[in-house]
Specification:
Layout lengths: L11 H28 L4 H10 L17 H14 L1 H21 L2 H12 L4 E5 L15 E5 L2 E12 L6 E13 L2 E10 L5 E3 L13 E12 L3 E2 L5 H37 L1 E2 L2 E2 L4 H29 L5 H25 L10 H9 L9 H11 L3
Parallel strand pairs: 1-4
Antiparallel strand pairs: 2-3, 3-7, 4-5, 5-8, 6-7, 9-10
The chain binds flavin-adenine dinucleotide (FAD).
Family: Belongs to the acyl-CoA dehydrogenase family.
Pfam families: Acyl-CoA_dh_1, Acyl-CoA_dh_M, Acyl-CoA_dh_N
Organism: Nocardia jinanensis
């Protein structure tokens, strides 16, 4: 089978990175993926391995402890990890694009020096708390407040569904909070909350349909007091800054989704060539071959969509529409491919320990997190002037 990395499309340094992460995913992640999924346990040993490889620092400059790479390098790593284990991939995606990137993009020099080396090394994880019970797609519904009190912000409220927020190595939660009213509208700002701050609680983890080995909690903030200097970026720009972070994050989620879609193809090509029914391999039936061909086409077109969005972003051009298109088609490719793969595996596809069954459970959230399918359609429509 011709693999995309062997087509020569990518410059050598990107291809070498992807192949290195692929080896790691096959040798270190794959053997423990089913166990962590079944036990709903956070894969600390895998995360430590990714940290040693420098994956958490991929898009950050060396002066902040990063690898001096770029966002596309991160995407390639996410695609390779996403093929094998989406929980591991989302831990990296959220750690970098939601945990560390807001500080790199909007932090002052002191905040960058304090937090980025820890987050880029993977020694610690950062989380981003935007979503609340009444603020998901409509993030403007934020109710959490941050009141000024002398030299401090005092934060009260709740966040929900926050990734990487309750692990033993979580060091920081960045939260959006209402800091006042401007022209009758909420002023939303972003504030850094160290995880050991009194009054902050990561409540017991959710029991999810998938992404079982990734860490997701509701959070409670009760009179959480942090210094005024923990404001991240300009006061009142919290919402706008977060939208920029989400635009980038959509390319990363698309890459992860392409990994899932391709992982399903790879599993099916192997299985359909081995499994026999009616005296021949099931793959020799055109009905199965066509299904797998369509799966390959979905993965490939979704990959070109995220490559395109990443190329625009890295060259400093507008990329909002392309990022939404990539997220839309890649998450749908992952969901469609995992459903088809489960069908091709027959009864085995319904057994939790099989990778395609895990992809089937894991892929649904790709159409929901970091902007639902409907939100992507809204954004694309807006870019078209509708
Ligand atoms: C496992 C997991 C991890 C997550 N990690 C994080 C995290 O780290 N940080 C964080 O802040 N959040 C996180 N989230 C939250 C996630 O981003 C939200 O769940 C998502 O944005 C959707 O918001 P909601 O759940 O409130 O759904 P809602 O916004 O209530 O949407 C419900 C449904 O209505 C649709 N809808 C809403 N408005 C419209 C409209 N105008 N037109 C058409 N349809 C519409 C939506 O598309 C959706 O289908 C996570 C969620 C999960 C499940």
């Amino acid at each position: 089978m011709t693999d995309f990395l062997s087509t020569g499309t990518l410059p050598e340094h990107y291809r070498d990175l992807a192949l290195t992460v692929r080896d790691f995913a096959n040798q270190v992640v794959a053997p423990v993926a089913a166990k962590h999924d079944a036990e709903h346990s956070f894969p600390y040993e895998v995360v430590a391995g990714m940290a040693r490889m420098g994956l958490f620092g991929l898009p950050f400059p060396e002066e902040y402890g990063g690898m001096g790479g770029d966002y596309f390098a991160l995407c390639l790593a996410l695609e390779e990890l996403g093929k094998i284990d989406q929980s591991v991939a989302i831990t990296l995606e959220a750690g970098v694009s939601l945990g560390a990137m807001p500080i790199y993009r909007f932090g002052d020099e002191k905040q960058k020096q304090e937090w980025l080396p820890r987050l880029a090394s993977g020694q610690n994880l950062g989380a981003f708390g935007l979503t609340e019970a009444g603020a998901g797609s409509d993030a403007g519904g934020t109710r959490t407040t941050a009141a000024e009190d002398g030299d401090s912000w005092v934060i009260n409220g709740n966040k929900q569904f926050i990734t990487n927020s309750g692990t033993d190595i979580t060091a920081l939660i960045t939260v959006t909070a209402v800091t006042g009213q401007v022209g009758g509208k909420k002023e939303i700002s972003t504030i850094l909350v160290p995880a050991d701050t009194s009054g902050f609680t990561a409540e017991p983890a959710y029991n999810k349909v998938g992404w079982n080995a990734s860490d997701t909690h509701p959070l409670t903030f009760t009179d959480v007091r942090v210094p005024k200097e923990n404001l991240l970026g300009e006061r009142g720009r919290g919402y706008a800054n977060f939208l920029r972070i989400l635009d980038e994050g959509r390319i990363a989620i698309a890459a992860l989704s392409v990994g899932a879609a391709q992982g399903c193809v790879d599993e099916c090509v192997r299985y359909a060539g081995e499994r026999e029914a009616f005296g021949k391999t099931i793959g020799s039936n055109q009905a199965i071959a066509f299904k797998i061909a369509r799966m390959e086409a979905r993965a490939h077109t979704a990959r070109t969509a995220y490559y395109d969005a990443a190329a625009l972003m890295l060259s400093g051009k507008p990329f909002k529409k392309q990022a939404s298109i990539a997220k839309l088609v890649a998450s749908e490719a992952a969901m469609d491919n995992s459903r088809d793969a489960t069908q091709i595996f027959g009864g085995y596809g319904f057994m939790n320990e099989y990778p395609v069954a895990r992809h089937y459970r894991d892929s649904k959230i790709l159409e929901i997190g970091e902007g639902t399918t409907e939100v992507q359609l809204m954004l694309i429509g807006r870019e078209l002037g509708l």
